[in-house]
Amino acid sequence: MLKQHFLLILIVSLFVSNSLLAQSAMQVGELKTFYSEILGTDRTIQVYLPDSYDDSERKYATLYVLDGQMFFLNGVAIQKSLHGETLLPEMIVIGLVMEQPERNEVFRNQWDEFKAFVQKELVGYIDQNFRTNGERILFGWETSAYVSAEVIMASGCPFTGAISSNAAYIDQNMIDSFNKQVSDIKYLYLANTEKDIYTIASTTQAVENLKANDIDNLVWDVRLFNDEIHESLPYLSMYHGLKFYYHNYASPSFSSIKDFEERGGLPYLNDYFKQRGERFGMSQEIDYATKNTLIWMAWNQDEFSAFKQFMTEFEDVLGTPRYASAYWQNRLGQYYLKYEDFDSAIPFFERGIRDYPDDEYMAQMYSGLGLSYLGNDDKKRAKQNLKLAVQAAEKTSDQNLDVYKEQLKKVK
Questions:
Q1: Is 83 left (phi over 0), alpha (psi -120 to 50) or beta?
Q2: 48: domain CATH number?
Q3: Which CATH number characterizes residue 282's domain?
Q4: Least confident window among 98-102, 297-301, 375-379
Q5: C-alpha span between 117 and 74 (Å, rounded)
Q6: Do 142 and 269 reside in the same domain of the chain?
Q7: Nearest-CA neighbor of 283 among 293, 294, 273, 268?
Q8: pLDDT tens for residues 26-60?
Q9: Burial class, 381, CB count within 10 angstroms (exposed 0-12 / middle 13-18 / buried 19+)
Q10: Helices and strands, number each (H, E), in the chain
């Protein structure tokens, strides 16, 4: 069965994608050549190093791109466009150059040797010459997709994840062999399109075999991009495959407070960061980005009870530079004032006036402070601060001057 799939794809390669394979990627990173004892020939690879590589001693995850002559730049672009540490870690990207007609000759005559080369010599060369951390993802398209699927299921596989676009082959023997292995968790992402009439059957069969078995230590998913065709899909599948592999790397995002609560609220959030920390060696504490986002979302969606909960639970984030301004002190104080939580509002107004004197917000902060004291029935302090609000507004010709005067008049 594998041989039939393989021969079909070789035929398709010659007629459908020959023009793509003939294109050479523009120069990004470095080209390196080394001799393969297994294949008995020199192999050329493209190497992209992250921006931080030369200025650090860090070790990096590695993305191996088969058919680098077509898709190496895509891997680099994903790194650049997703801003490194935000959604994905910075990665070393390796592109294995496989121009035609050599590509089909290798796949036709040196199939097993090529897989051994990828697993042993290629990985060994990269690990010896660059700072890698053992996290390796293998991307393959079309015939190379068979390679990526077979390699991730193989005994002693050095890769932690694989992306197979526009083809795959996984049979029962491969699954049984995988289940006998004692290994860490592996990730496999399969992508295809119904429009790829030459390869969709192989992906479908692989998915059926995966679904029919309980497979220890394999996390897998499949997605059909039926708007795409044979040539366009690999660009999407690499992106979505990396997102699948790094599904719990980025800070979690929520569409609403209801969404946050339905996912499990704070217990869910604590568990997410615990698992993320264990998997990637990162802090297990909820990060500031998530805390800031939840506070802002509660304010923006006018969910006061959630806002107050987050302000209490995430009190530490309020001491970060983000909130070191009159703008934020006034904004937070005004929201507490809106819900007549005067005791919570007062410290923000006082801190803003004391630590961040800013003409643009002084009248608003004095007014907020005065009204908060008035809400606590402290008319003396209310009057003092509302007078200061009027004076600050007069100084800057504030358009709300009449509002502040009216507030002061009511106190008198």
A1: left
A2: 3.40.50.1820
A3: 1.25.40.10
A4: 98-102
A5: 23
A6: no
A7: 273
A8: 568 899 999 999 999 999 999 999 989 999 999 99
A9: middle
A10: 19, 8
| 194, part of any domain | yes
Query: Whole domain around residue 208: which residue ranges?
Result: 2-245
Q: Is the Cα torsion angle 100, 104, 109, 114 positive or negative in sign?
A: positive
Q: Which tokens in the block code for residue 98?
A: 């496989």
Looking at the domain assignment, is residue 197 inside a domain? yes
Give per-residue pLDDT as tens, 305-341.
Answer: 999 999 999 999 999 999 999 999 999 999 999 999 9
Contact 405, 384 (CB under 8 A): no
Rounded Cα gap, residues 321 and 328, in angstroms = 11
Would you say the C-alpha torsion 124, 130, 133, 136 has a positive or negative sign?
negative
**Antiparallel, parallel or unpaired: β 218-224 and 161-165:** unpaired
Task: Determine whether 74 is exposed, middle or buried from the number of CB atoms within 10 Å of its CB (0-12, 13-18, 19+).
Answer: buried
DSSP letter at 118 equals I
* C-alpha Rg value of the chain to the nearest Å: 30
- What's the one-letter identity of residue 119? Q
Of 214, 245, 276, the position where a domain reaches its end is 245
Q: Are residues 230 and 132 in the same domain?
A: yes
What is the per-residue pLDDT across 81-135, written as a single tens digit (0 to 9) for each?
Answer: 876 567 899 999 999 999 989 899 999 999 999 999 999 999 999 999 999 999 9
Pair 88, 119 in one domain: yes
Residues 276 and 239 in one domain: no
Give the residue among 86, 95, 87, 82 at the shortest CA–CA distance from 49.
Answer: 95
CA-wise closest residue to 291 among 306, 309, 275, 310: 310
Strands 132-141 and 161-165: parallel
Contact (CB, 8 A) for 330 and 357: no
Strand partners, 79: none
What length is written for the chain? 412
Total domains in the fold of the chain: 2
251 located within any domain: no
Residue 412: per-residue pLDDT? 74
Is 165 in the same domain as 42? Answer: yes
Which of 245, 267, 296 terminates a domain? The answer is 245
Q: 386 and 315 in one domain? A: yes
pLDDT of residue 9: 47
Cα–Cα distance between 76 and 58 in angstroms, integer? 19
Is residue 66 in a domain?
Answer: yes
